[in-house]
Amino acid sequence: MKPDTTTPTTASANRLKAQGLIDALAPGYLPHIIDGQPCASVDGQTTTNYSPIDGSVLNQTALGSQADVEAASLSSSRAFEAWRQWPANKRRDVLHAIADRLEANAESIALMETADTGQPLHFTGKTAARGAENFRYFADLCSRAADGHSYPTPTHLNYTMREPIGPVGAITPWNMPFMLATWKIAPALAAGCTVVHKPAEWSPLTAAFLSKLALEAGLPAGVLNTVQGLGGGAGSALTQDPRIKAIAFVGGTKTGSRIMAQGAPSLKRVHFELGGKSPVVVFEDADLDRAVDAVAFMIFSLNGQRCNAGSRLLVQRSIHNEFVKRLVQRAQSIRMGDPFDKATEVGPLIHGVQLAKVKAYCDKAQQEGATIECGGSSHGNPALHPQGHWMAPTIVSGVSASMDIVQDEVFGPVLAVLPFDDEAHALALANDSRYGLSTYLWTGNVGRAHRLARSFQSGMVWVNTEIARNLSTPFGGMKESGIGRDGGDWSFDFYMETRNVCIALDEHAIPKIGKK
Ligand code: NAD
Q: Does residue 304 contact residue 414 with C-beta atoms inside 8 Å?
C-alpha cells in the first residue's frame, strides 16, 4: 500500500504542523529507523495515527512486519560486536550527548507526546528532562557495568565479571511512551547491548524522534533500531527472533504472558513491568492534608493511565466520610480540557476503546450497588472536542472487595474506595489482589509503618509519599505486576550475563580416581 499523506484536519495535528514537527519527523509518513536510516516497511504497509484530543489525523506510520523486524535485528547483531567494545567513557559521552539533545528538544518532545497521547503539557513538559535524567544516570554507570565481585576461600579465588547479553528488544506502552522508552533503552545501551525498540501503535511519534536524536548525538547506526507496528505483528516477531537475546517489556499482564510464550522456543530472558491495582492505605493518624494531595495526584495525574496509580483507596472507617468528601471536592476542581493549555491537569484518554472500557467499569459498579461520588463519564463540558475521549475524575464508594472495579486494572482516572476497621483488616484488603506493584501507606505511627511495610505484597512500598523515584532503587512488581527489577545495578543484571571465574591457589587436594 502506498503511504497515505492525508492532510491533518483539526487542532492537534495543526499544532504539530505549525511547529514543523510533523513535516520534520514524518514527511509523508513516519518511517522505521533501521541501521541509521529512515525506511518504509518492506511490504509498504502503513497505518493511520489519530490524536485522542480531537480525532485528527496526525500522520501515517510505517506498519512493521516480520521482514522489518528481521532487518532491524540483523542490524543490531552487526552493530553489537563494535558497540560492546567501545571504551566505557566513550559510551558514557555519547549517552550524555543524547541527554543534551533531549533537553534541547524538550518543547518539541512535549508537543508530540501531548498530541499523540492526550497527556497534558503540564506533565509532558517534564518528560524530556526525565528521559535525559535516565540517560545521564546510566551514562555515569557505564564504567562500572562490567564490574563483579570476588569470593576468596583458603584454597580458591572466585571472581565474577559481567558482559552485555547481546541485542535486546524493548517493547513499550502508550501511557508514558517517551519516558518509558528511555527507561528501557538507556540502561541497555550503557550495558553495551544494542536495541530494537517497538513502541506502542497508539503513540509512535516520540520513539521515532528519540531514535533520530540519538543518531544526531553520535550513536552509531544499528545500535538503536526503531520498528513501528502492531503488537501481534512487529511485536510478536521481535519476541521470536533468535538474534534477540532478551525482551524488556512494559505493558499489560496478559501481553506479558503472551510474550513469555512467544519467547519460550528461543529461551528469551524477559523483564516485565506489567499492570497494577495499587492500594493507598490511609490511617486516621496520618497527616490528612498531605494524604489528600497525594491520593488525588496518584490517581488523577496522567489521566489515571499510570501503572503505579493508587487506584484502590483503603481508608480507616472513622475518617472515611470526611476523607472522601475532601477528595470529591478536589476531583471536581481538577481542570479537564485541552491538553495543550498549560493549566489543564486532565486530558482525554488515549483511545475510544480505552474510554469505553473505563466507563464500563463505572457502569457495572453502579449496577452492582456502588455510588459514583463524582465523574463516571465525561462531564459534558461543551468546550471539550466531541471527538476526544474525555473521562472526568471519578470516585466510586460503597464497593465490595470482590467487584471488578476493585480487582481489575481500570487504567483511567477512577478511584475505588473501601473502609477498613483496623490494621489487620487494612492489610488483608491491601493484599487481596492479583497485582503487587506498589502500596502507598499513610500513617503517623512509625512502628505500624515498618510492620506493614514488611507485610504488604508489593514490590514497592511508599510511606507518607506519592511515588518519588530514586533511579538507584529497585523498581518493579510482584505477583501479576511483573518479573524483575529496574534501576541501578538491577538493570545491568538483566541486560548482562554474569560469568564466574574460579582459580585454585594450587594447594588443595584434588580427589583422585583410578590411581593405584
Ligand atoms: P499492551 O500490553 O497492550 O501493549 C504494550 C506493548 O506491547 C505495545 O507496544 C504493544 O504493541 C505490544 N504488544 C501487544 N501484544 C504483543 C505481542 N503479542 N507480542 C509482542 N508485543 C505485543 O499495554 P498498553 O495497553 O499499551 O499499556 C497499558 C499497560 O501497561 C497497563 O497494564 C499498565 O499498567 C502497563 N504499564 C506498566 C508499567 C510498569 O512499570 N509496571 C508502566 C507503564 C505501563
A: yes
316 phi and psi angles, rounded to 5 deg: -60, 135
In CATH terms, the fold of domain 279-463 is Aldehyde Dehydrogenase; Chain A, domain 2 (3.40.309)
For the chain, percent of residues with pLDDT exceeding 70: 97
- Write out pLDDT tens, residues 336-347: 999 999 999 999
Residue nearest to atom 3 of ligand 1 (CA): 252
What's the pLDDT score for residue 516? 80
CA pair distance 266, 255, nearest whole angstrom:
18
Write down the domain spans for the chain: 32-274+481-499, 279-463
For residue 6, what pLDDT is reported?
35
Distance 478 CA to ligand 1 centre (A): 17
Mutate to test the pocket of ligand 1, among 168, 171, 481 (most ligand atoms within 8 A of CB): 171
How far apart CA 224 and CA 217 sit, in angstroms, is: 12
Q: How many CB atoms lie within 10 A of CB 262?
A: 18
Whether residue 502 lies in the annotated active site: no
Nearest CA to ligand 1 atom 41: 273
For domain 32-274+481-499, the CATH superfamily is: Aldehyde Dehydrogenase; Chain A, domain 1 (3.40.605.10)
| pLDDT reported for residue 280 | 98
Q: Is 307 a catalytic residue?
A: yes
Position in ligand 1 atom list of the atom nearest CA 171: 9
The stretch 296-316 carries a mean pLDDT of: 97
Is there an atom of ligand 1 within 6 Å of 275 CB? yes
Query: Taking 70 as the threshold, does the pLDDT of residue 8 lie above it?
Result: no
Q: How far is the CA of 258 from the centre of ligand 1 (A)?
A: 11
Q: C-alpha grid cell for residue 469? A: 523515584
